[in-house]
Amino acid sequence: MKPQDPQRVYDALGKLSIAFTRLEHPPVHTMADCRAIGEQLGAPFCKNLFLQNRQGTRFYLLLIGQDKALRTARISKMLGISRLSFGSAPALEALLGTAPGAISPLGLLYDTRHAVTLLVDEDFRQAARLSFHPCVNTASLALSAADFFNKFLPHTGHEPVFLTIEDVNA
Prior knowledge:
This protein is α/β, with parallel strands linked by helices.
């Protein structure tokens, strides 16, 4: 499955009456690039990580702060899973309609079988706005966190699992 057209994301947000600010830009490949875009949009950019269990039968999308380092062993322990690793590109494309480098919780629109569990850093629960890619890394958008959690996620049928994720760099 090739990555989806971001217009489907924009259309879904419009249908849900979710206001957003969109910024088109050259392809971004690093969190430093995303940080700069988030600053332009006035909303922190989420680091989005696609993970899977050892067997490749359970999938997770983890949203953490852009400056937080991740140890998958800590997340595995929190979830009671023996070992998490990064999910494969084919699974990412099949489940979230995107490719590595453009991972986004907005791709949950494509996960109609609810095969992906959304894990969210507790820090985002109190955020005013959040920035994500619309499933391509040549655009970014900012929307209210309340709209994301209270309108978008219920529309997709995904309920977030909030985790307290301590920064391993702190």
